[in-house]
Prior knowledge:
Layout: E1 2-5, E2 12-15, E3 19-20, H1 22-38, E4 41-44, E5 50-51, H2 53-68, E6 73-76, H3 80-88, H4 92-95
Helix pairs in contact: 1-2
Amino acid sequence: MSLHQVEDTSVQSISLPAIMDLDALEGVRETLIEACDIGAVSIDAGAVERVATNGLFLLLSAAESARAHAVSFAIHNPSSVLLAAIDRLGLAERFKGLI
């Protein structure tokens, strides 16, 4: 997982790890907090091969926090695994507008 600022903008770009299980979530959480504190957040979710339910709720929580602070938050390039997990858990409506 990486965080970098896109040149000439205040957008923070985050690449999610391939495995978003309980072991990875603390690092993802810290990165999301850091990014939201700086500015708009753009998440690349293309590498996600496995995601725990808590990982999806972490993304939703971060999106809500960003919205509450008037910070843009978007998920780009979602992997088929991420989309399937969202659908399987009935969270498609909650992720609408983020992806």
